[in-house]
């Protein structure tokens, strides 16, 4: 059966063919460095990666009426540690223009949230102002994951390596990843459960990597649950994009770290 992740990757292969005909190469070396890892090391609270996400395959349109710069400013003022920007157009209605608008507005590290399968996409993310890229283990062969991880870190980018189960986590840890994202959403079935973070947390912590719990966080209780499992950070999209009182929703999520949460 073809899953949504398969369809997204097929789309990325087509986009890659177009990218191959463009001349994109701007290494990150000269750029001002904005580091999520530094922020995680210093934070006394759970760190929040706030996402700019107009739409998604599981939820359809979430909020297409807010400007990226406006949303990003509120994220920064509310205390976000980084901002994630969905740049995929076909499935999430995002764009690299959104990423540029966010980077120009805030001083925070920017995560390019896309489905990366080739170094050219890393060049492209970097050229548009990303500080962090996402690599999804479920979307990549192990050899490709290692190649892309090394390529991105050589450019000075930080890499959030995303997993959803134990086998993927073992593969992710072989790269030496310092930032592990545990996605509570199964990207093949859309099922969301915070138990995924609870199950994988101990192995992430043991590796010395920072643990970011991603998806399905809607309330203080949800944040409390993943924090108690040992999460250093959370990645939140829908709850912020849909909030009628973003500052309040945000502050409800800002909990102190538990003892020993730092790797
Ligand atoms: O969100 C989806 O429907 C989705 C479907 C297929 C691949 C990826 C998808 N989402 C990416 C994410 O992981 C989330 O945007 C992110 O973790 C925030 O999740 P949420 O807070 O639940 O919006």
TrEMBL record:
Indole-3-glycerol phosphate synthase domain span: 5-250
Keyword Amino-acid biosynthesis: yes
Catalytic activity: 1-(2-carboxyphenylamino)-1-deoxy-D-ribulose 5-phosphate + H(+) = (1S,2R)-1-C-(indol-3-yl)glycerol 3-phosphate + CO2 + H2O
Pfam families: IGPS (PF00218)
EC numbers, comma separated: 4.1.1.48
Claim: Transmembrane helix is one of the keywords in the record: no
Biological or metabolic pathway of the protein: Amino-acid biosynthesis; L-tryptophan biosynthesis; L-tryptophan from chorismate: step 4/5
Keywords associated with the record: Amino-acid biosynthesis, Aromatic amino acid biosynthesis, Decarboxylase, Lyase, Tryptophan biosynthesis
GO biological process, one term: L-tryptophan biosynthetic process
MF terms (GO), sorted A to Z: indole-3-glycerol-phosphate synthase activity; phosphoribosylanthranilate isomerase activity
Coiled-coil zones: none
Family under the similarity heading: Belongs to the TrpC family.
UniProt protein name: Indole-3-glycerol phosphate synthase
UniProt source species: Neobacillus rhizophilus
């Amino acid at each position: 059966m073809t899953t949504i992740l398969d369809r997204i990757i097929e789309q990325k292969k087509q986009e890659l063919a177009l990218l191959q005909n463009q001349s994109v190469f701007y290494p990150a070396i000269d750029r001002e460095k904005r580091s999520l890892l530094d922020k995680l090391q210093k934070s006394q609270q759970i760190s929040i990666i706030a996402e700019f996400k107009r739409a998604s395959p599981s939820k359809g349109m979430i909020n297409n009426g807010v400007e990226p710069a406006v949303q990003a400013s509120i994220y920064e003022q509310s205390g976000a540690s980084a901002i994630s920007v969905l740049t995929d157009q076909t499935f999430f209605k995002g764009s690299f223009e959104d990423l540029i608008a966010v980077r120009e507005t805030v001083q925070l590290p920017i995560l390019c949230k896309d489905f990366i399968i080739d170094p050219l996409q890393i060049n492209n993310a970097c050229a548009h102002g990303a500080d962090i890229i996402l690599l999804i283990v479920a979307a990549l062969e192990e050899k490709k994951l290692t190649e892309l991880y090394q390529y991105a870190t050589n450019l000075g980018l930080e890499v959030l390596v995303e997993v959803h189960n134990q086998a993927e986590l073992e593969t992710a840890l072989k790269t030496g990843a310092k930032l592990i994202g545990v996605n509570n959403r199964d990207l093949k079935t859309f099922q969301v459960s915070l138990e995924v973070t609870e199950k994988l947390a101990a192995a992430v912590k043991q590796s010395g990597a920072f643990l970011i719990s991603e998806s399905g966080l809607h309330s203080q209780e949800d944040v409390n649950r993943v924090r108690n499992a040992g999460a250093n950070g959370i990645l939140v999209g829908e709850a912020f994009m849909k909030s009628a009182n973003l500052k309040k929703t945000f502050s409800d999520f800002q909990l102190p770290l538990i003892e020993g949460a730092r790797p």
